[in-house]
Specification:
A: 149 residues, mainly alpha, 8 helices, B: 314 residues, alpha/beta, Peroxisomal Thiolase, Chain A, domain 1, 2 domains, five-stranded mixed sheet, four-stranded mixed sheet
């Protein structure tokens, strides 16, 4: 029996009854696509250390650069949002998603000019990642100094 | 109409379906401006009138400072009243035009509204190429511009009543569920209209809401049932009608352009040939902004009702 809907109980009713995506299927897709991207990254890492005889740091830089380039290229080609619709968090969370979050606004705001459009708005999505990532790295760096003596 | 909307079930009713949503312009905003102008000019032409015969253009859109309408009006050279009712703008324009004509202040008014998927996305949500998904209650802003000419005389369908909506907010904060946010406003306006005109839902062939979408429409029917009005058999929603069944649009279409085109291109024709005798158009708006959402505000809704009756025969 449906409750009589009033302003007081409306939000709770909607939360309970609104259609939701299939959680299991959403997670499965995110897992596999995210996993694929990370596997690619690991593969590039191994390519660096085993075949190109790079150091660990160099190989990891190689993987990072190639993944960022791929994310940016696919965004520019208009493919990354199609992947994103399917993969959800699986394509947002890896570093390719970070590239997408910078290239997408850069493309979007070109019409407002290169300075106030591209330049100012480029970090509109990635900004918080940069700000809080840098803050946390400073904090952990300082903590590292104290705890490692 | 945009390409996707043109593929919908109403595609062949529209005056023009764009193959390219840029409409040969350099930006989406300029495209929407051009669409608005096209809609107004076509409506005036189809009424066998000249732009000089028009006393006033009443119109709006979803962009900041309603630039699509204002910049289009710049080209059209007629007196312009810009309005903003979010997605309820079209019925707001119709009711204002009706009141101006009824008070004999004006003889002829053009009412128009417009939206564009890309301009709305970049203003309200995220850049187009960003790879994030959408929840099932979200809606797709339609790429659509529609216009109607209202006159004080003639043989066309008559605008008979209007009911002005109040802003109703029942606490929904989720900007991806605007249908549920607007449904209480739609229910309030429809109930008020039926009570004040002493009509029943069945007196209308259709009670058409603007863009509640699938989920919002279900909630509306429940809310009205609780007030003693059963609209389950004659409720229609422009946001649901405009897209094909299998389109990837979650809960349906949205935007003031949506009710503008579905009414002007589809329902109006049925009123003109009297296959629909009585229709109530209730465009629904969600009066939020990106700022209000970030500040944790809930989403207030509004709905304006405009009643039409078909041409009399002969």
């Amino acid at each position: 029996m449906d409750p009589i809907l009033k302003p007081e109980n409306y939000e709770a009713y909607i939360q309970k009854n609104m259609p939701r995506g299939n959680f299991l299927w959403d997670c499965t897709r995110a897992f596999f696509i995210g996993g694929l991207i990370c596997t690619l990254g690991q593969g590039l890492n191994n390519l660096g250390t085993d075949i190109l005889k790079m150091t660990k740091d160099q190989a990891s830089m190689l993987a990072t650069v190639i993944l960022i380039f791929t994310g940016a290229l696919l965004t520019g080609l208009g493919v990354y949002d199609v992947i994103g619709k399917f993969a959800g968090a699986g394509s947002i969370v890896p570093i390719t998603g970070f590239a997408n979050s910078i290239v997408a606004p850069a493309m979007e705001f070109k019409r407002e000019g290169y300075v106030m459009g591209v330049g100012a708005k480029m970090f509109s999505i990635a900004g918080p990642v940069l700000v809080y990532g840098i803050i946390l790295s400073v904090v952990s760096g300082i903590a590292g100094i104290f705890f490692s003596g | 109409m945009g390409e996707l909307e043109g593929k919908g079930p109403l595609g062949n009713h529209f005056d023009r379906v764009l193959q390219d949503d840029l409409f040969n312009q350099k930006s989406w905003e300029k495209a929407e401006n051009k669409m608005f102008q096209f809609a107004v000019k076509t409506a005036v032409e189809k009424s066998n009138m000249q732009m000089d015969d028009i006393d006033c253009l009443i119109g709006g859109d979803l962009l900041n400072q309603i630039i699509s309408s204002s910049f289009a009006a710049r080209e059209l050279n007629i007196p312009f009243l810009g309005i903003y009712g979010a997605c309820s703008t079209f019925s707001e324009a119709l009711l204002l035009g009706g009141l101006l004509i009824d008070s004999k202040s004006m003889d002829c008014v053009v009412c128009a509204a417009s939206t564009h998927f890309s301009t709305a996305e970049r203003q309200y949500r995220t850049p187009l190429e960003l790879g994030t998904g959408r929840p099932p209650t979200s809606q797709r802003t339609t790429t659509a511009s529609g216009a109607c000419v209202l006159k004080n005389a003639g043989t066309g369908p008559r605008l008979t009543h209007c009911t002005l909506g109040k802003v109703i907010d029942w606490g929904i904060k989720d900007a991806n569920n605007m249908g549920a946010a607007m449904a209480p406003a739609a229910a309030d306006t429809i109930a008020t209209h039926l009570l004040e005109t002493a009509k029943a839902p069945k007196d209308y062939d259709y009670i058409v809401t603007g863009d509640l979408g699938h989920h919002g429409s279900e909630v509306l029917i429940k809310l009205l049932k609780q007030r003693g009005f059963d609209v389950s058999s004659n409720h229609a929603d422009c946001g649901i009608q405009i897209y094909p069944e299998d389109a990837d649009v979650q809960s349906g279409g949205s935007g003031c352009g949506c009710s503008a085109v579905v009414f002007s291109a589809y329902f109006l024709k049925q009123l003109m040939d009297a296959s629909v005798k009585n229709l109530l158009l209730v465009s629904t708006g969600a009066l939020l902004s990106p700022t209000s959402t970030l500040q944790g505000e809930s989403i207030p809704g509004i709905a304006h009702a405009v009643a039409f009756e078909a041409c009399k025969e002969g």
